[in-house]
Write a structure and sequence with these properties.
This protein has 381 residues and is of the alpha+beta class. The chain contains eleven helices and 18 strands.
Length: 381
């Protein structure tokens, strides 16, 4: 498992990400094998060491026969069956294209991004991140460029409408040169893979990959960098409170979200109903976590909810000493948690799951078993 930071401050494309992955140590054979499994025609990857703006970089060429086949989202779904991450990338593309052209995703006809080389870019990049075991992916603000670009729809402003739609809510900037710096494929990949956006997080960097774009404009290093290593955590183990406001998530999902945060390492997680601007009902999600586990919980929040940002604050926590003992109710063991303050037991509470299990086994009401277990627990105080 690794933590990844993607430096897209000079732009992003599928081939730049492929080059960065190979430069970071992903064997080209891993990418080629994934592509061979889905490509209906031969597609070959060719690795070249180049220089961009004076920097050494890895260029990955995708050699595929020229195709004028305008594939639909339905065609792509069939090709990529079983490759969930790659499907998620193309689904983002389909939704974005549908939004900017005023149609539905199933009616979208992919042009540039439906070609075999673009499909290879997406499948290869997804296979590369899976090979890295990317646990978290933080993406820098993305350079999109400026000026105009020629597309199947004619001359379009930069960023093209699909890129602008894909990067809605994501930190972006124009960049240093007047050219297209972020392609639709690059934007879809970054927004699907990202678990957070921002500068390089605290991490011990183990490998660095520098992926080259196809052009080498003067005064601009046309590269994307990928740093892979291990997050060093936040706060050195100090407790943190992570929070976000969410107004667009199906309320039925919240129990699963809270369970996922607890599994990721949160010591507690809960919801507070709130009223946001324009009278919109919403919830604040709170997660209490030790600093050493904060990155895992952040990742779970971004993956499980629709939020695009978090706030966090360090906390001072005073916890009582705890001890587990047991009582018996009709021969069924029920665990009891004792809390001590300066050596004196100040609280003794039966574990509710044990109470429910015992009540089920005994065929008794839960309320009766809870009352009996609570009464038996008083002997420890």
């Amino acid at each position: 498992m690794s933590d990844v930071w993607v430096d897209a401050s000079a732009g992003a494309s599928g081939d730049m990400l492929l080059g960065a992955l190979v430069g970071a140590g992903v064997p080209p054979a891993v990418l080629q094998e994934a592509i061979d499994e889905v490509a209906p025609e031969p597609v070959a990857l060719r690795v070249e060491e180049v220089r961009r703006g004076g920097l050494a970089a890895t260029r990955v060429h995708v050699d595929a026969a020229e195709s004028h086949h305008h594939r639909t989202w339905r065609d792509v779904r069939s090709m990529l069956a079983g490759r969930d991450l790659a499907l998620s990338v193309f689904e983002r593309l389909a939704v974005a294209e549908a939004a900017v052209h005023g149609t539905t995703p199933d009616e979208v006809h992919f042009h540039e991004v439906g070609a075999l080389d673009a499909i290879a870019d997406i499948v290869g990049v997804c296979a590369g991140f899976e090979h890295l075991g990317a646990r978290t992916v933080t993406v820098s603000p993305v350079a999109v460029g400026s000026g105009t670009v020629q597309t199947a729809h004619g001359t379009l402003p930069v960023p093209p409408p699909a890129v602008a739609e894909l990067l809605r809510g994501v930190p972006t900037h124009a960049g240093a040169v007047a050219m297209e710096l972020c392609t639709p494929t690059g934007a879809a990949l970054l927004t699907t893979l990202a678990t957070a956006y921002g500068p390089q997080p605290a991490m011990t960097v183990e490998t660095i990959g520098v992926g080259a774009g196809g052009r080498d404009p003067e005064g601009h290093a046309n590269v994307l960098r990928l740093f892979a290593g291990a997050a060093t955590g936040s706060g050195g183990g100090e407790p943190l409170l992570l929070e976000c406001n969410v107004d667009d998530l199906d309320p039925r999902v919240w129990p699963a979200v809270i369970a996922a945060l607890l599994e990721a390492g949160a010591s507690d997680a809960w919801l507070t109903p709130i009223l946001m601007k324009k009278g919109r009902p919403a919830h604040t999600l709170h997660a209490l976590v030790d600093g050493a586990r904060a990155e895992e919980v952040r990742t779970a929040i971004f993956r499980q909810t629709s939020t695009i940002g978090l706030r966090e604050q360090p906390l001072r926590k005073h916890a009582l000493d705890r001890e587990m003992v047991a009582v018996e109710v009709d021969g069924r063991e029920v665990a009891v948690k004792l809390a001590r303050h300066r050596g004196v037991v100040v609280n003794a509470q039966p574990e509710y799951d044990d109470v429910v299990r015992a009540a089920t086994d005994l065929g008794r009401p839960v309320v009766d078993v809870l009352a009996e277990a609570t009464a038996l627990s008083r002997k420890f105080r």
